[in-house]
Amino acid sequence: MASSSCGGGSDRQMAAQHRLSIIAGHLQRPSGSNTAILAAECKAQASKPFVSSERRTVPRRRQEIMKWNGWGYSDSKFVYNKKGQAEFTGRRYKLSGMIIPGLKDWMENTFGATLQHKTTATPALNSSAVPPPTLNEAFMEELKSTGIPFSADAEDRVFRAHGHCLHEIFALREGKIGRVPDMVVWPNCHNDVVKIVELACKHNVCLIPYGGGTSVSSALECPPEESRSIVSLDTSQMNRILWIDEKNLTAHVEAGIIGQDLENLLNESGYCTGHEPDSMEFSSLGGWVATRASGMKKNIYGNIEDLVIHIKMVTPQGVIEKSCQGPRMSTGPDIHHFIMGSEGTLGVITEVTMKIRPVPEYQKYGSVVFPNFEQGVACLREVARQRCAPASIRLMDNEQFKFGHALKPQVSSIFTSFLDGLKKFYITKFKGFDPNRLCVATLLFEGDREKVLQHEKQVYDIAAKFGGLAAGEDNGQRGYMLTFVIAYLRDLGMDYYVIGESFETSVPWDRVLDICRNVKARIVYECKDKGVQFPPLSTCRVTQTYDAGACVYFYFAFNYRGLGDPVHVYEQVEHAAREEILANGGSLSHHHGVGKLRKEWMRETVSSVGMGMLQSVKDYVDPKNIFGSRNLL
Amino acid sequence: MTNTHKDFSQVGLKDEEEDFIDILEDRRHSSDLSFAFRTFSPQPYKVAPPCSTAELNRVVLESQFLRYVTKEVAVEMDLSVEEVQEEARGILGEMSQNLQLGFIRLMAYTFNKVFKRLYSSIFVNMEGLNRLHQATQENPVILMPNHRSYIDFLVISYIMFLYDIPIPVIAAGIPLAGMKIVGEILRRSGAFFIRRAIGSDKLYWAVLSEYVRTIVRKGFAPLEFFVEGFRSRTLKSVSPKLGMMHMVLEPFFKGEVFDITLLPISISYDRVLEESLLAHELLGVPKPKESTMGLLKASRVLSENYGCMHVNFGRPLSVRQLCEGRINRCQYNLIPRDLPEKPTAEAQACVSWLAHLVVRNQEQGSQISPWSLMCGLLLQVPTRVLTEEGFPWHQLTEKTLWLRKLALDFGGRLNWPDGVPDSDVMSSTATLHRGIVQCKAGRVFLVQQDEPARTHPVRPEEGVMKTAAAALMLVSYRNQCLHVFVRPALLATAMHITKSTQRDELLAFFSFLQDVFSYEFIFIPGESLQDFEEACRLLKKCGAIHANQQEVAAAQGGMEVLSFLQELLKPFIHSYQLVFRYLCEAESDILTEKEFGLAVRGLATKLLLTAELHTYEALSSDLQKNVLSALRRLEALTKLSSSVSNKFKVNKAAVKRIADMLSGKIPPLNLQASPDARL
């Protein structure tokens, strides 16, 4: 393994023994071909990594563990078993191996999607369907001499040609492959990236940085009009924590590390970043910075822009970075803000220093049921006003509440199901909540035990003022677990003619209710208008609170049986929904970014002058458009 | 964009003629009491829960918008915020409705009694009701009937009650609230009351607009209001008022509701209850004050028959669809939405366009009676003939049947009974209106008013007034069918006056006529070209003209149609010329409205006596007002804002120029018509 040789150095750490055993285990695994040379190189130039990355999740050949035409790990997916019950396979998640009895009925009732109507996805990637690579021979020759690994293998290229937009996955399932990168290159450290970018400039090659591949903004799509050789720069092997500064509570990390590895590794030292976007299993630190990501627990830890102390980025003009790590500076516009949200158009983020925190002593989930969505939003607004939001607070609307219910795994004991029945009776009959209006907020508290309990009481007291009833830890915990498996559910949907996606926005408080209602209604209206035969699922939740507003997530899916071009219909509806969001004072994006999917609205979003500013930065930093993903601008 | 709304505005065309059902039929066979106690179970509004009167008023008073305004007013008036709040509460108390089902039952009971006596039938289109039924569950619904009679008020509520549709809250004029007992009954039947002259009373505007917006946002009940503002005294559509319309639409502009459904309703009467009252009002006899005693006294009118009433529920108009491309909702993104702000020019234009579109829909949905056609023809006969020797009945019948065909060709909705011989239709129509015309020995005469015996001989001026009342009643009933003919008539007039066959020239004159008569007939702003094309299409269809891309010319055999249409507009042209002449010849160029009215009436009377003027319409105060409004819009007249008595200043040269253009002496150069901005 690449970094195994530099791994065991941190014997000061409490967990060193433990980790050594893991390293031993990893050493026995078959490893990539030419890693040995690289390891030597990087070891020579880089300081010794503080925490090793031997347990990295993402191999160079992603196909070894991940689906080529769906979300996540190959071994984890929803299927209908022989009895016709939904089941989640694999062993990675809490839900893995469990039966989900309510899902089939929910699919039928919500979408009219029945077991009889199944689609078949192309089972395996057909390499002959992949267009042959346009290779820049001179570039390749020089690259070879650096020893940085690369590949022009069809599978490797296809894997890096897409994110997870609906149209991208849908096309893969149909076996349709468009323009894909001509080559993939795996730098192992900052200096490798410097070399690659130099060569790319020299030979006029187009570079598209690739981190975790979880983009939902068409940012990874190769511009079809690009005639140069396109090289996908996969940062996944730059995944070490280079040092941890316990005095200042910061960590210096290579940008290719993915979220779960970063947290796990820091946890071993007793720390965390607390940055947990829903995609954290697969998305990378560099990707977070490049798209201005937001984490579930931002109320305690902040969003990526609050977490980042220092960034190193390699651009065609050279390396950009600040000279010190002062916590705040008044030195003109913050150059970090040219980098954050640049979406791969200016360069490659290679190393990031970010804040870390001790792992919290105590964590507690919770949930509150409200009689209706209006009351729920009013409660969240009050929580924000009092600035007492827990680590996470999310409000689901009625449809999502029902959906969450449908995803309850089979209950093991009669007692639990009896309790569930009792709870339902209490809420709907005794408290008079209308099951078709009520909604639920899920909560996550973090900190030391005493403070958490105190905080919890404060939040529940506010909730009670808005008619909210505490509805238990289980509901809360399940809510958060679902954020990780929900992406898998789309693949199941697609097996049965259901397509859908989520999109987000941020909006001032006074418009939250209006935007939720109008966008949901617009989706229903547009579906009808575009000839969708079944009523769509159009639902939303408020996922983040701020002083002056909130982040709202919309989920939208429909059964496309009877439609000639379902993806086109889907795109038209999503487009209309975005127009509606903007007309209702919502932002173009809260954290997904713009990519190519939303760039038509950039000018009206940031004004012409704003566009000019961004363009002039691009023109200075990358005059030859080496970073030619054509995102954003 | 230009085509999209056409789908909505062409509601009244023949191909989708709907079935009307007489709702009085069943009522005649069942007890009024059991009707009043029928189970009323409307489908609830899906988007939001119901809202009580108290809750509605609380939300209005506590609104952020009102808080802003209250503070502003307190500073301006040097009052404490509490005092202003108290005043606002008082205004709201005076205004607010208090809808109670019990009173709807009482109203239904009373109306049952009254309607059965007054009308032989009340026809309602069931499909329209079904559409409305659906719409009330999905979006806030605005019921927008035309306003031709006091009966309009509450008749909709009566029908809603009958068909299990949520009872509307209705905007009414404050005089109604002043009626003893009746005011309170109306309030509890869902009426809310608006003062007549609000002027610049900021707090009043604020309370009213927030009240209206809250009703729309809550959506629990349809909101009914008369976009024409007041009862049309001439039975012709009135230029829409935009203030209320803006209040209603604002929640959509600001994203507070997903959509708003506008529902044009066309109420057509065979015979209008207050026909003679209206004619006298037009001649300057003041309208009696609304009072309960007055209402009881008027019960005499209840003993007569008023024929049929048609209530045509139009196609629901989606504000969202109509505003597509007309309003940029992002304009509200950067300021708090409840901050008191002047509407933008874009919003004003959109409101005006929609309001006109609704009125046009009302026109197209209205049912034209045979009587209206007859009036149109009788008015083309010299008045002296009608009063002295009479007009041959057979000739009138023949002409009416001819006109019926033309009206149908032009897409009018005719209320001509099926399966009855035409002669019976004609004679029963004449019988219904025996107060205006009488048939003697095969000839039709205009009925002169019987006045109490006088001691002194009748002065010639009084003779004019006597005939005028009857003539203006004919005018009013003719007006019921004007909207069908007005566009082709403008073209026919343009052809006649310009003597040109050039399409461009005709279009220019056509547009000029639209500008001059913009308060007389309802044209959707900015759609002059479409109107012109419609006129060409209709005249071509009935074979009156030949038209191609360059030329428009009279066809052989088209003279009958063309001259009928020209004659139809002549009273307007002559009356306007008369007013122009007066304005140009007046000694002063500063006039009050009152002086102006009296003087024009005097001049018209004089000219009628010397037979220099042939139309009694010049006597109509409504027409006089319309000329002034049009001239103001064309900037030939300016209102002097400082004065209390509605003084205005005349630009004689400009008036002269318009007069000359209208008579064809000089070609119409593009007039500076300022955009309609009366909010």
How would you explain this protein's 3D organization?
The complex is a heterodimer of chains A (633) and B (679). Chain A has 633 residues and is an alpha+beta fold. Among the domains of chain A are: 127-236, 2-Layer Sandwich (Uridine Diphospho-n-acetylenolpyruvylglucosamine Reductase, domain 2), CATH 3.30.43; 241-358, Uridine Diphospho-n-acetylenolpyruvylglucosamine Reductase, domain 3 (2-Layer Sandwich), CATH 3.30.465.10; 361-482, Alpha-Beta Plaits. Chain A has 20 helices and 21 strands. The longest helix of chain A has 23 residues, at 473-495. Chain A is globular and about 75 Å long. The two termini of chain A are 39 Å apart. Chain B is built from 28 helices and 19 strands. In chain B, the strands form five sheets. In chain B, strands 1, 2, 3, 4, 5, 6, 7, 8 and 9 form a nine-stranded mixed sheet that branches. A three-stranded antiparallel sheet of chain B has the order 11-14-13. The model of chain B is unreliable at 1-15 and 675-679 (pLDDT under 50). Chains A and B meet through helix 18 of A and loops of B. Chain A: The record marks 394 as: Important for enzyme activity. Chain A: Homodimer.
Q: What does this entry show, briefly?
A:
The complex is a heterodimer of chains A (633) and B (679). Chain A is of the alpha+beta class.
CATH architecture verdict of the domain at 361-482 in chain A: 2-Layer Sandwich
Number of helices of chain B: 28
Distance between the termini of chain A: 39 Å
CATH topology of the domain at 361-482 in chain A: Alpha-Beta Plaits
Can you count the beta strands of chain A? 21
**Level of helix content of chain B?**
40-55%
**Contiguous uncertain segments of 5+ residues of chain A:** 1-41
Give me the count of strands of chain B.
Answer: 19
Net shape of chain B? globular
Fraction of residues in helix of chain A: 25-40%
- Give the biggest beta sheet of chain A: 7 strands, antiparallel
Q: Work out the oligomeric state of the chains in this entry.
A: heterodimer
SS content category of chain B:
alpha/beta
What is the typical, i.e. mean, pLDDT of chain A?
Answer: 89
**What does the radius of gyration of chain B come to?**
25 Å
